[in-house]
Amino acid sequence: MKTVPPAHRIALLFNGGKIYDRGIITGIGNYLSSTRATWDLFLEEDFLCRLKGIERWQGDGIIADFDDPLIGEALAGSTLPVVAVGGSYEDERAYPKHIPYVATDNFALIKLAYEHLIEAGLTRFACFSLPEAQSNRWAQEREKAFRRLLQRDGLRGEVYRGLSTSAPLWDSAVEQQITWLQSLPKPIGIIAVSDARARQLLQACLTAGIAVPEQVALIGIDNDPLTRTLTRVPLSSVTQGTQLMGRTAAQLLHQMLHGMPSTARQILVPPEAINVQASSLHQPLGNPYVMQALHFIRQYACQGIKTAQVASYVGISRSSLESHFRKERGCSVHDEILSFKLTAAASGLK
């Protein structure tokens, strides 16, 4: 009678509340489902509170998010096989030593977003990042990628980090974002280092009456469905290859558990695609009335607005607005509202 080999005890050190981490965890699960690997997985909802003593854990292996420096420090003394996951670095010395590292390609993420904005006809660009901190080194790497791309193309661009998003700073953060947005030349394409940052900037645009995407075309990174539900203008976003990262990390650990020596190699995983939505669909418009109308329609089309309400927002008569629309867009205001509603409905079915 054949004996069933014991299951390997594997710890996954990730934050299951983030879409990036959930994608990696899903990829790990997909790998296990497609192979004969038998793992007992240990996954804490808030693993950072339980890191103390992890190096003494009596398991068989660990896959961990090394974007947080606390993880690397906690696992420095571990004798177990470890696979690191995180963001890529321009300087190879920043990678952890002696262990394999599966990285989302930060340069490729920014490059894909940048090329999308170029294809939309934009020639001015900016990057909305995060205040520098050890816990978000990935954001600084995306800043570097943005600067490299613009330097390559002989262009100048702005990088704005703003304030953190803690509750006491919310009002000040929004005010500073609006001031920065108003200072930028228009039209401009802005790449936010994450969907969370993109959503904040989109809200600042709407508060300040800055038309998106006619004046500011905006794209984020993560393709987070929760963020999309919280924005009045649908947000374009780059989808990271997180599931492939998870599958790759699981395969590496599986091989290590069966005798493959641990080596300090880096595997870069490219982004999957862009989910193109209204926030980056820039079309040059010379008519300020049409620009204002589209700004209003994108925010409220799905709430049943009528042409008269759009005209009232713009401040001209309905007949005048219809005339401007037919000349600039080749359709009526009602057609534009209906088109946006259909696009939003189709996007919701994906």
What does the model show?
- The chain has 3 domains: 8-105 and 241-275, Response regulator (Rossmann fold, 3-Layer(aba) Sandwich); 107-239 and 276-280, 3-Layer(aba) Sandwich (Rossmann fold), CATH 3.40.50.2300; 288-348, Orthogonal Bundle (Arc Repressor Mutant, subunit A).
- It is of the alpha/beta class.
- It has 12 helices and 12 strands.
- Strand 1 (8-13), helix 1 (19-34) and strand 2 (39-43) form a beta-alpha-beta unit.
- The longest helix is centred in the first third of the chain and has 16 residues, at 19-34.
- A 6-stranded parallel β-sheet has the order 2-1-3-4-5-11. Strands 7-6-8-9-10-12 form a 6-stranded mixed β-sheet, sandwiched between helices.
- The termini are far apart.
- The protein is elongated.
Compact summary:
The protein is α/β, with parallel strands linked by helices and 350 residues long. It has helices at residues 19-34, 69-74, 106-119, 137-152, 170-183, 195-208, 225-229, 242-257, 288-300, 307-314, 318-328, 333-348; strands at 8-13, 39-43, 61-65, 82-87, 101-104, 125-128, 157-160, 188-192, 216-221, 236-239, 266-269, 273-275.
Topology:
Layout: E1 8-13, H1 19-34, E2 39-43, E3 61-65, H2 69-74, E4 82-87, E5 101-104, H3 106-119, E6 125-128, H4 137-152, E7 157-160, H5 170-183, E8 188-192, H6 195-208, E9 216-221, H7 225-229, E10 236-239, H8 242-257, E11 266-269, E12 273-275, H9 288-300, H10 307-314, H11 318-328, H12 333-348
Parallel strand pairs: 1-2, 1-3, 3-4, 4-5, 5-11, 6-7, 6-8, 8-9, 9-10
Antiparallel strand pairs: 10-12
Helix pairs in contact: 1-8, 3-4, 5-6, 9-10
